[in-house]
Amino acid sequence: MAKRHYIxxxxxxxxxxxxxxxALIRKVIRTALQLEGVTLPCEVDVLLTNDAGIHAINxxxxxxxxxxxxLSFPEFExxxxxxxxxxxxxxxDVATGLLPLGDMVLSMERVRAQAKEFGHSNRRELAYLxxxxxxxxxxxxxxxxxxxxxxxxAREDAVMEALxxxx
Length: 167
Known about the structure:
Elements: E1 9-11, H1 19-35, E2 42-49, H2 51-62, E3 70-74, E4 99-107, H3 108-118, H4 122-137, H5 147-163
Parallel strand pairs: 1-2, 2-4
Antiparallel strand pairs: 3-4
Helix pairs in contact: 1-4, 1-5, 3-4, 4-5
C-alpha cells in the first residue's frame, strides 16, 4: 500500500482545530498536492492560531511587525509547475519516508474577518488560504503583479474548483 501524506494540525487557540476544520485542511492539502502532480508522500505541518500568534511568528521569522492571514515556510526550494517527484526521493526523511514540504500557520481570526469582508463562508476562506499556502510550499509566488501572480491565481482557482468550493 502506498504511503499517504501526513498532515498534523495543531492549534494554540481553543476550538480552532475542530474536526471539521482539520478534515477540510487535510482534504485541501491532499487535493492541491494531487493536482500539482506531487508523487511523493509528504508531510505538511499546520498551526492554527489567532492574530496575536501569527503576528509574533511573522515578526520573529520574517521581521514583519504585523499580523497576516497565512504564513508558509517551505523546507525546500521548488519551482512552480515542477513539483517534487520520485526523482526527489533523497529529500525524504529517512525515518518516515515522507518529504517534509514545510509548515503553514493560519490565523483563524483573519479567516473569519476576511470571509465576512469578502462575503463568503469561513469554510471557503479557510480552503483558499490553505490552497494558497500549499502553492507557496511548492514554489509558487505572487511577488510580481504579473506572470507569477497570474500563474498562482490560476492554480488556486483550479484547486478550489476541484474541491467544489465556489467564490
